[in-house]
Amino acid sequence: xxxxxxxxxxxxxxxxxxxxxxxxxxxxxxxxxxxxxxxxxxxxxxxxxxxxxxxxxxxxxxxxxxxxxxxxxxxxxxxxxxxxxxxxxxxxxxxxxxxxxxxxxxxxxxxxxxxxxxxxxxxxxxxxxxxxxxxxxxxxxxxxxxxxxxxxxxxxxxxxxxxxxxxxxxxxxxxxxxxxxxxxxxxxxxxxxxxxxxxxxxxxxxxxxxxxxxxxxxxxxxxxxxxxxxxxxxxxxxxxxxxxxxxxxxxxxxxxxxxxxxxxxxxxxxxxxxxxxxxxxxxxxxxxxxxxxxxxxxxxxxxxxxxxxxxxxxxxxxxxxxxxxxxxxxxxxxxxxxxxxxxxxxxxxxxxxxxxxxxxxxxxxxxxxxxxxxxxxxxxxxxxxxxxxxxxxxxxxxxxxxxxxxxxxxxxxxxxxxxxxxxxxxxxxxxxxxxxxxxxxxxxxxxxxxxxxxxxxxxxxxxxxxxxxxxxxxxxxxx
Length: 479
Known about the structure:
With about 475 residues, this protein is an alpha/beta fold. The chain has helices at about 5-10, 15-35, 45-55, 100-105, 150-155, 175-180, 215-225, 270-285, 300-315, 330-345, 345-360, 365-385, 410-415, 425, 455-470; strands at about 40, 70-75, 110-115, 165-170, 185, 205-210, 255, 285-290, 390-395, 430-440, 445-450. An 11-stranded mixed beta sheet has the order 1-3-2-4-6-5-10-11-9-7-8, with helices on both faces.
């Protein structure tokens, strides 16, 4: 069932939140040994939350997410429930508080089932960099589910939960959503509070929902968005009722396609599905025209300088002193070195070294400074495009899900999986990935739409209209 169906059934007392919760937990127990979507499952906490929903008086206010089981990416703090960020260094870390988005979900009646697997500190595109082993793509168990929010995408795709939260720094919601055949939304930077999100790159990180339907994503975003005094970067703009925008009408929508970006490196089956998706929008009354993003080719190098530099600064706090794992040593410097060596995985170490180098004396202007200039050019490209189009359309990924292990020894090929997704976070823009077809091998393909700042309503309305004329989002993997 969709989250909306569960909520409405619970509100009408036709469904028991406890029975829905038990059903989800049973499915996780039955199938997650193979898929490994979850790092931690909170059976007792979930059942207690569901029982509280069932025991609410009939006269109580209706909760927007009442009884909906939700999975939370394991880099979002959950009070009293282990939060590892996919890393050994936080293997035993239990936060004393909920992230703002988690507390808002709970207050809205959502039932938190557990914490989902992710690349360590959200640094990866396949979930293979998790210290707890990779998750498996439900559509083909030898394929990667994408990353870093791979566990959340798997949880929704496999029917464990109808709704999950992920975080997106360079594509970490949208790319796994595309690989697993679900919807993933990265909101505008500042639309959703980052308080309680374990930081990777603070000027890029943003929390967002993964779901089967645009309506469920709209419900979730309406709950988690909005001002937060605990996050100075969070916007104080009012939060609309996103679900009210989902009328199915996209007549007059202007869709821009940067054709030059698609000339090389894109799988033909992905391009075919992308073109089919554009045709669906045309049939709905949208117009499709060419647009230009001349600096898009610099997206990957710009992103991997800005993000690694910020990661170098953010991860300096993991020193074995205040929290997290500690390896005893004979000196303070030795304790730092041995703690980080044992606690961080290879990819995290690689990015810390890259970022530290980019920030070091003599190289700052040549690397980090120039990357920030490139970021400004990328943002201006989008501003110029939005002067004549309403959304920019791209495939979410250049190819379908790759095989587990296929790119572990080639970091550059792994990074290129983000080639179409890094632009939106660099510009601070909202973007959505919508299921738009399959390859001949029955692997999902995603259509990505990028919108103006704080125009999530238009992205969700377009996704909802797209769903009305397609059945790809209804497809389920055989488990």
